[in-house]
Design goal:
InterPro entries: TPR-like_helical_dom_sf. Keywords: Membrane, Transmembrane, Transmembrane helix. The protein is mainly alpha-helical. It is 76% helix and 0% strand. The chain is elongated, with a radius of gyration of 48 Å. The protein is built from 24 helices and no strands.
C-alpha cells in the first residue's frame, strides 16, 4: 500500500495504516531474497576468489601432468619425441649414457613404447655401427680402453660378429706392438733364474701372465710359466717333507692360480691331502687320549691349509668343551689355579670354535660357585682353633669310614664317604690320614662305576666316575670310563629320540658331550637331535 492512501477518522486525527517499504514490497512481489539490495550488493568477495583459485589450480595441474597424460593418451607422440632426441644424441656422438640421455637408451625407450615400429630398431643399428666406428677411431689414437668399451657396446647392439672380431684382433695387435713384450720376457727369465717366482709385479709368474694376456700363444711365455710353476711346486714338496703343511698349501694354491692345468699339480695336491688326513688322525688320537693342547695344535694346523674343514672346526669345538669340563672338575675340588688355567685354555680354543661359548659360561659359573663354597668353609675354619680343626677332621674321617662300611660311597649327598673326605681335605689338604682314606676309597669308586654301568644307572655311574677323578684314578682308566659312559648316553638318547622324548634326548646329548666331546657317534647324534628340534 501507499502511505498517501491513508484514511482519516474524525476531526484532527488521522489513522496510519501499516505499509511495506518499496524495496521489500518489490522483494515480496518477486519472491526473491528478502534482504535489502544494499546488503546483497555487499556480499563477501571470497566466492569470486575461490572460483579464480580453482581455475588456477586446474591450469597448474594441466601444465604439470600434460606430458604424462599425453604419453598415456597419445603414446606415439612420446615415442616420436624419444626418436627425435635419440637422433640428436647420435648426431652429437653421445651413444650411451648412464642417465638415459644416450642414443642407445633413448631408442630402447621408444622401442618399448612402440615395439612394432622399425624406426627405433633401425636407430639402434645405426648406434651399433657408430660405436664400431668410434672404437676404430679410439684405437687409431691409442685410447685402447675407450676402444674396448665402444667395441663392447657394438657387440651388445648386434653389430656383425665378423666386423667386431676383426676389430678386436686389430686392437690386440696394436696393444702387442705398443707393449714391450720382449723386455717383459727378458725380465721374467731373469726373475725365474733368481728364484723370484711370485709375490710382486716384477716376479717371473706375474710377468709371464702379462705377456700371455696380449700374446696368448707366445711360446717363450708358456714354457717359462711352466718352468716357474714347477719350481714353485718343488718348494711345496720341500715344505711337505718338513711337515710345514700350511706353507706347502699356500704354494700349491698360488701355482693353481697361475695355471690350474699344470701337469705336476695333481701329484702335489694328492700328497698334501694325504698328509692332512694323517694330521687329522693324530688330532683325533690326541683328543681321545685327553691331550687337549696337542689336539688343538693339530686341528689348527689343518685349518691353516683348509680354512673351511668341518672336521677341524668340530675337533676344536670338542677341545674347547673338554677344557671347559676340566675347569669344572678342578673347581669342584677347590683347585682354583688349575681351574683358571683350564678356563684360559678353553677361551683360547674358542677363538676358532665360538659354539663352545655355552660350555665355557657353565664352567665359569661352576668356578664361581666353588669359590663361594670355599669361602664359607674358610669362614668356619677361621673361627676354629687348631684343636677344634683337628677334632673336626677326625670326626669327618670317622664319618667317611662309617659311610664306607655302609656302602654309602657317593650317596646320599652330604652323608657319603666321598663328601666327608672332600670336606676333610678342604680343612687339612696335607693330612696323611686323608690320603690313606682316599687311597682306600679309590677301588670302591671303581667298583661303583662298573656296577652302575652294568645296571644302566648312568647318573650314578657319572658320580662314581667323578669320585674316581677326585680320588686320583689312573688318567687312562678315566678316559676309557668317560668314553664308555658317553657311548651309553648316546644309545639312551637315541632311544628317547625314537620315542619322541626330545627333552630327554637333548639331556643325553649334553651328558655325552660333557663326558667325551670326541666320542664316536656324537656328531651324528647331535645332527639328529638338531633336525628333530627344527621339525618341532
Amino acid at each position: 500500500m501507499d502511505r498517501n492512501r491513508n484514511a482519516r477518522r474524525g476531526p484532527g486525527r488521522r489513522r496510519i495504516e501499516p505499509t511495506l517499504a518499496p524495496d521489500r514490497a518489490d522483494v515480496a512481489a518477486t519472491g526473491d531474497d528478502w534482504r535489502p539490495l544494499r546488503q546483497r550488493q555487499s556480499s563477501p568477495a571470497w566466492r569470486w576468489w575461490g572460483a579464480l583459485a580453482c581455475i588456477a589450480l586446474a591450469i597448474v595441474a594441466l601444465m604439470v601432468f600434460r606430458q604424462p597424460l599425453a604419453d598415456r593418451l597419445w603414446p606415439e607422440t612420446r615415442a616420436q619425441q624419444l626418436r627425435t632426441d635419440a637422433e640428436q644424441a647420435l648426431s652429437e656422438g653421445r651413444l650411451t649414457a648412464t642417465d638415459g640421455s644416450g642414443a642407445r637408451e633413448l631408442y630402447e625407450a621408444a622401442l618399448a613404447l612402440e615395439p612394432d615400429r622399425i624406426e627405433a630398431r633401425a636407430g639402434l643399428s645405426r648406434v651399433a655401427r657408430q660405436a664400431l666406428a668410434q672404437a676404430r677411431m679410439a684405437m687409431d689414437t691409442g685410447r685402447y680402453d675407450d676402444a674396448y668399451r665402444m667395441l663392447t657396446l657394438a657387440r651388445e647392439l648386434g653389430v656383425p660378429r665378423a666386423d667386431a672380431d676383426a676389430l678386436a684382433a686389430q686392437l690386440r695387435a696394436r696393444e702387442t706392438a705398443r707393449a714391450d713384450v720382449d723386455q717383459w720376457l727378458v725380465s721374467a727369465a731373469s726373475a725365474l733364474k733368481a728364484g723370484d717366482l711370485s709375490g710382486n709385479d716384477h716376479a717371473a709368474l706375474p710377468l709371464y701372465r702379462r705377456v700371455l694376456a696380449v700374446q696368448p700363444n707366445r711360446t717363450e711365455a708358456l714354457e717359462g710359466r711352466e718352468d716357474a710353476i714347477s719350481a714353485m711346486l718343488q718348494r711345496a714338496w720341500d715344505r711337505m717333507r718338513a711337515d710345514e703343511l700350511a706353507a706347502a698349501g699356500a704354494l700349491i694354491a698360488q701355482a693353481r692360480g697361475f695355471d690350474a692345468g699344470h701337469a705336476e699339480l695333481p701329484d702335489a695336491t694328492a700328497e698334501l691331502a694325504r698328509l692332512l688326513e694323517r694330521r687329522r688322525e693324530r688330532a683325533r688320537a690326541a683328543l681321545g687320549r685327553g691331550r687337549l693342547e696337542q689336539a688343538r695344535t693339530l686341528w689348527r694346523s689343518v685349518l691353516a691349509v683348509e680354512r673351511y674343514d668341518m672336521e677341524a672346526h668340530q675337533g676344536l669345538l670338542a677341545v674347547a668343551r673338554a677344557q671347559a669340563a676340566q675347569a669344572t672338575r678342578e673347581a669342584r675340588d677347590f683347585r682354583f689355579d688349575a681351574a683358571e688355567a683350564a678356563l684360559a685354555e678353553a677361551r683360547d680354543t674358542a677363538a676358532d670354535a665360538p659354539d663352545a661359548a655355552p660350555a665355557i659360561a657353565e664352567a665359569e659359573r661352576s668356578l664361581q660357585q666353588a669359590r663361594q663354597s670355599r669361602q664359607r668353609l674358610q669362614a668356619v675354619d677361621g673361627s676354629m682353633t687348631p684343636a677344634e680343626r683337628e677334632q673336626r677332621v677326625s670326626r669327618l674321617l670317622r664319618s667317611a669310614l662309617a659311610a664306607e662300611e655302609r656302602g654309602d660311597l657317593l650317596l646320599p649327598p652330604g652323608e657319603s664317604a666321598f663328601d666327608a673326605l672332600r670336606a676333610a681335605r678342604a680343612l687339612a689338604p696335607d693330612d696323611a690320614r686323608i690320603a690313606r682314606a682316599t687311597a682306600r676309597l679309590l677301588p670302591a669308586s671303581q667298583q661303583c662305576y662298573r656296577d652302575a654301568l652294568r645296571g644302566n644307572r648312568l647318573q650314578r655311574a657319572g658320580r662314581c666316575l667323578q669320585a674316581g677323578e677326585v680320588l686320583g684314578a689312573d688318567p687312562d682308566t678315566l678316559r676309557d670310563q668317560r668314553r664308555r659312559l658317553a657311548q651309553r648316553w648316546i644309545a639312551v638318547g637315541d632311544e628317547r629320540l625314537g620315542a619322541g622324548e626330545l627333552g630327554a634326548a637333548r639331556a643325553a646329548l649334553e651328558a655325552a658331550r660333557t663326558l667325551d666331546p670326541s666320542v664316536a657317534g656324537l656328531n651324528a647324534f647331535a645332527r639328529r637331535v638338531e633336525a628333530a628340534t627344527a621339525a618341532n
